[in-house]
Amino acid sequence: MTVSDSDRLHSQLARYEDMFRGYRMEIVEGNIVMSPLRPFHNETIVRLWMQLEVQLGEEWAFISDVAIPFSDEFEFCPDLAVIPSAEKNRNLTAYSPDLIELAIEVVSPSSVRNDYEVKHKQYAARGIPNYLIFDPRDGHLVTFWNPGPDGYQGRDTFPYGGQATVETKIGRLIIDTAPLPVDPEARPQP
């Protein structure tokens, strides 16, 4: 798929996004999937961006909720993705998944399968080196690395409350999970 093809698809999807404010929209397995946005979801994204941006070199930058077309069946909008700064500065509506060095998703109740299964397989099959899932429902971070055609071969899980170190091709990232919100309805608090 070329970027012009993806622009066409994304422009179709953008038309629906304007009709359904408060929802994030993606194309998953050929279907338009709408996920309601929650405050903890956005708070997690902002806190991660602030922590990680200062750890990236000038040659890397974040994009958030921007279309990443994989095929006609899959167009994802990662919560955060790290791509080369020069590409981010082009300010496009869609980017190739081949640019992504690190993909980050924040789980919401309606995105569990997509984040843990569908994106796990699609991101790995496309060769995205690292994939991080932050789960406010369960209060943990899951890191994936060593991508392959059937998913990632490496996996670690870190409970929220401390620091996690993630080795990536763009450098060592240290993530303080203590300030990340945990959904009080989804997990009993100690």
How does this structure look, described?
- This protein has 190 residues and is an alpha+beta fold.
- It contains 4 helices and 12 strands.
- Strands 3-6-7-8-9-10 form a 6-stranded mixed sheet. A two-stranded antiparallel sheet has the order 1-2. Strands 4-5 form a two-stranded antiparallel sheet.
- Strand 11 (163-168) and strand 12 (171-176) form a beta hairpin.
- The longest helix has 17 residues, at 3-19.
- The model has no long low-confidence stretch (mean pLDDT 86).
Short description:
With 190 residues, this protein is α+β, with helices and mostly antiparallel strands. The chain has 4 helices and 12 strands, in the order H-E-E-H-E-E-E-E-H-E-H-E-E-E-E-E.
| Text of the CATH class | Alpha Beta
Number of domains: 1
Rg (C-alpha, Å): 16 Å
Poorly predicted runs are none
Read across the widest sheet, the strand sequence of neighbours is 3-6-7-8-9-10
**How would you sum up the global shape?**
globular
Number of E-type strands: 12
Structural class: alpha+beta
CATH architecture: Alpha-Beta Complex
Spell the H/E element sequence: HEEHEEEEHEHEEEEE
Major beta-sheet overview: 6 strands, mixed
Q: What's the assembly state of these chains? A: single chain
Head-to-tail CA distance between termini? 48 Å
CATH-assigned fold name? tt1808, chain A
Helix content: 25-40%
Superfamily (CATH H level) name? tt1808, chain A
